[in-house]
Design goal:
mainly alpha, 5 helices
Length: 102
């Protein structure tokens, strides 16, 4: 039961915070926020990359099924800091919540 609660919590929080997914107007606006904003945006996009990949696949093969148009990577953020944050987010992601060191 504890594992199911943890998974549910992570999914709810991720979906609630996904308003700043790549391709959204909020994400495009955040790209002009300076270097710290780009780093944080990259980390966030790396963390939610598995969810945005699923949304992109659904939008490609079943158009109109999902009411949002997200992308996995923000093309408007052409910065090394964004790229670094994106890779950190991919490497860490939410996986640290599921695995404990023994």
């Amino acid at each position: 039961m504890k594992q199911a609660t943890r998974v549910t919590f992570v999914l709810v929080v991720t979906l609630a915070l996904a308003a700043c997914a790549a391709g959204s107007p909020q994400s495009v606006q955040a790209t002009g926020g300076g270097p710290i904003a780009l780093l944080a945006l990259g980390i966030w996009h790396g963390i939610i990359a598995p969810i945005t990949l699923i949304v992109e696949i659904l939008n490609r093969f079943a158009p109109g099924l999902v009411p949002v148009r997200w992308h996995m990577y923000e093309t408007g953020a052409s910065s090394a800091l964004y790229d670094l944050g994106f890779y950190f987010g991919l490497a860490g992601g939410p996986s640290f919540l599921f695995f404990r060191r023994g």
